[in-house]
Amino acid sequence: xxxxxxxxxxxxxxxxxxxxxxxxxxxxxxxxxxxxxxxxxxxxxxxxxxxxxxxxxxxxxxxxxxxxxxxxxx
Length: 74
What we know:
Helix content is about 70%, strand content about 0%. It is mainly α. The chain has a domain at about 25-74. Helix 2 (about 25-45) packs antiparallel against helix 3 (about 55-65). The protein starts with 7 loop residues before the first helix and ends in a 7-residue tail after the last helix. The relative contact order is 0.14.
């Protein structure tokens, strides 16, 4: 697992962003929508994904799950 590499200023900006700008649940919803739209675009353009595209979709989904654990079983 990687370690936190954010500067104190970056951490403060992220905290401020999520505390005052957008709710984590709403951000997760937007990330999922963008991820879905990007996936459709890639699938329509090419039958096989380009290098790294699969990883990008995975990490965007992971970020959405961190913000709002939607896929976890209750």
